[in-house]
Automatic annotation (TrEMBL):
This is Protein-glutamate methylesterase/protein-glutamine glutaminase. Residues 10-127 form the Response regulatory domain. It comes from Thioclava electrotropha. The gene is cheB. Belongs to the CheB family. Contains a C-terminal catalytic domain, and an N-terminal region which modulates catalytic activity. It is found in: Cytoplasm.
Length: 354
């Protein structure tokens, strides 16, 4: 008998705007992998539809009447955890709310289409929903809150390059909370809309010991600094003319993404022997080829393991082609990075004695 096709994942659309619900439904209708089983205009209607329809994944608006999306998400993840993709305006307040939703347990977030761009609205939503429906739900925030910055770190001169996508907010927060104030210079390409990245940088800067900022052309790489690719029309790259510095490259998307992990990784090839490179959770394979080039050039490369990845796509691709030497559980990634970037105790004592 021929192999049966997998059952379509059931989607519930939750948004108080009938127009937005129609746009989302229209984008999903022709994708055989997904089946829209219902719609809800507010959180209370959504609660009843979830009970009746048992969807595999829901889209959830941030701003709704009677109960906003964040309050509903918090209750949902506490009482009946399930995959949720947030749909938010890309205003400053909307983007901050979307990042908060990801911290509460949402799998991913997408921006609502701007006026005049409706024909391209929600182009990536089907793939995002499918990945979310198959994703590993994030761990409770209790374990993340217990992470403390490392102490007595002595930097040996390496830079850290990190690529992440779906599930990356949770993973990056966990890792960076383990970084000390004097961490190695760290460059991150996270797949996310431009305004969401700005809000994410603000949030990280509030909750971790090192300073976090969006990358800008000309910024020197400095200890104690974490640089997040700003996205929008640019990719983040690193240049090494005597003193390493950041540069924003205006270019087309790579692997469907801007910022692209591959472009960031490839830009650091002439610094490979002093680089520690990590691929985190995410769908697709962005970063795998760039990591392979870095490893061949002498970089130390590893990936997040399957058990702790929300979506084991990017790490799997890196491991399958041999770009990553090994995989590491999320809670052990920060210690592994710092171990690879630290001076040996003998060298530290020698420096202290001079």
């Amino acid at each position: 008998m021929p192999n049966e096709l997998p059952l379509a994942k059931k989607v519930l659309i939750v948004d108080d705007s009938a127009t937005m619900r129609q746009l989302i439904r229209a984008r999903l209708t022709n994708d055989a992998r997904l089946a829209v089983v219902g719609e809800a205009a507010d959180a209370f209607e959504a609660r009843e539809k979830i009970k009746a329809l048992s969807p595999d994944v829901i889209t959830l608006d941030v701003e709704m009447p009677r109960m906003n999306g964040l309050d509903f998400l918090e209750r949902l993840m506490r009482l009946r955890p399930m995959p949720v993709v947030m749909v938010s305006t890309e205003t400053h307040s909307g983007s901050r709310a979307a990042i908060e939703a990801l911290a509460l347990g949402a799998i991913d977030c997408v921006g609502k289409p701007r006026s005049g761009h409706l024909e391209k609205s929600f182009e990536t939503l089907p793939d995002i929903l499918l990945a979310a429906a198959n994703a590993r739900l994030p761990q409770s925030g209790v374990s993340r809150a217990a992470v403390r910055p490392a102490r007595n770190f002595h930097w040996a001169g390496q830079i850290v390059l990190i690529g992440s996508s779906t599930g990356g907010v949770d993973a990056l927060e966990t890792i960076l909370k383990g970084f000390p104030e004097n961490c190695p210079p760290t460059l991150i390409a996270q797949h996310m809309p431009e305004s969401f990245l700005a809000s994410f940088a603000e949030r990280l800067d509030r909750i971790i010991a090192p300073s976090v900022r969006l990358g800008q052309t000309g910024l020197p790489l400095a200890q104690g600094q974490v640089y997040l690719a700003p996205g929008g029309p640019t990719h983040l790259t690193v240049q090494n003319d005597r003193t390493p510095y950041l540069s924003l490259l205006e270019s087309e998307k790579r692997n469907g993404h801007r910022p692209s992990v591959d472009i960031l990784f490839e830009s650091a090839l002439n610094m490979a022997t002093n680089a520690v490179v990590v691929l985190l959770t995410g769908m697709g394979r962005d970063g795998a080829e760039g990591m392979m080039l870095l490893r061949r050039a002498g970089a130390h490369c590893f990936a997040q393991d399957k058990e702790t990845s929300t979506v084991f796509g990017m790490p799997r691709a890196a491991l399958e082609i041999g770009a990553a030497s090994y995989s590491v559980a999320l809670e052990k990634i920060a210690p592994e990075i710092l171990r690879r970037c630290a001076q040996s105790p003998a060298k530290v004592r020698k420096v202290g004695e001079t």
